[in-house]
Amino acid sequence: MIEAALPGAIVEVVDETGGGDHLRATVTAPQFEGLSRIDQHRLVKAAVRERFDDGSIHALSLKTAVPGS
Amino acid sequence: MADAELKQKVEELIAANPVLLFMKGTPEMPRCGFSMRVVQVLEAMDVEYGAVDVLPALQPLREVTAEISDWQTFPQLYVGGELLGGADIVEEMFDSGELAEALGVEQSAEARRAEAVAPTQAPPLQIE
């Protein structure tokens, strides 16, 4: 889902509780270049908003990075 | 659509407080682990900050911050009128030293803590 919204992104997701709804994701994407962290997180959160809205994700802990940094 | 009066109040608070934390609970008694983590970081940085407990009006405040900052989860830390981030971003920036820069604190918290500890470790008298 994140990869579809941010082509070229490398996404690693860890299911923190085993329940599938508390996730920790590390996202590395070329689209983040030049953006503040908050804007990087906004991009990812916008990509997964549907899943929050339908209740399938409750918590997403995020770490974002630009490739090569 | 967010409550206009509440939105105006929130905007005034953000403008009036150089460092403002919207959190669940209070700095003395955080009611959420993420809020507690941001409080701990701010305490470690030794900066003055304002804190707003969002729990009494959680949903209306979510609607307000969604409009102001495109962000609906708490905690939210505002610095200089801009949303810096939630717990993940604040901790990451604290670890990298970027938070000190954003807060206009000259040295990293680590350096300041090291300084504070140093005198007690030094011998009281130097004898040659």
Structure, explained:
The complex is a heterodimer of chains A (69) and B (128). A three-stranded mixed sheet of chain A has the order 1-2-3, with helices on one face. Chain A has helices at residues 2-5, 37-53; strands at 10-15, 22-28, 59-65. Chain A has one domain: 2-Layer Sandwich (GMP Synthetase, Chain A, domain 3). By secondary structure, chain A is α+β, with helices and mostly antiparallel strands. The radius of gyration of chain A is 12 Å and the shape is globular. The longest helix of chain B is centred in the N-terminal third of the chain and has 13 residues, at 4-16. Chain B contains six helices and four strands, in the order H-E-H-E-H-E-E-H-H-H. Chain B is globular, with a radius of gyration of 18 Å. In chain B, 52% of the residues lie in helices and 13% in strands. Chain B has a single domain, classed as 3-Layer(aba) Sandwich (Glutaredoxin), CATH 3.40.30. Residues 114-120 of chain B have low confidence and may be disordered. Chains A and B meet through helix 2 and strand 3 of A and strand 4 and helix 4 of B.
